[in-house]
Amino acid sequence: MALDQGDLLAGVRQMRLQAILTSLVMIALAALVLALLTRTLLRRLGLLKDALQNIASGEGDLTQRLDQTGHDELAPGKAGN
């Protein structure tokens, strides 16, 4: 029983193509998740920065409360802890 080298290489090429496509899809998904996380975190940091700049300018409302919702690193800081 002899196997044709072309048939063997076709299988290897198919597996290589599948691995490349899978890798590209995974990279695209990781980039999307990273972009969403970065956007969310930067938006919350921007809100905190704006509130602190308002207070620092001397014209900020010191009775104003910051939104404490969330479970990230910013939530305890907004609570004043």
TrEMBL record:
Would you name any one GO CC term?
membrane
Give all residue intervals belonging to the HAMP domain. Answer: 39-75
Q: Which GO terms describe its biological process?
A: signal transduction
Write out the transmembrane intervals: 20-42
What would be one Pfam family of this protein?
HAMP
Keywords from the UniProt entry:
Membrane, Transmembrane, Transmembrane helix
Report which superkingdom the organism of origin falls in: Bacteria
What the entry lists under Gene3D superfamilies is as follows: 6.10.340.10
Would I find Transmembrane helix among this entry's keywords? yes
Concerning InterPro entries, the annotation shows:
HAMP_dom
List the protein's name: HAMP domain-containing protein
Could you tell me which species this protein originates from? Castellaniella ginsengisoli
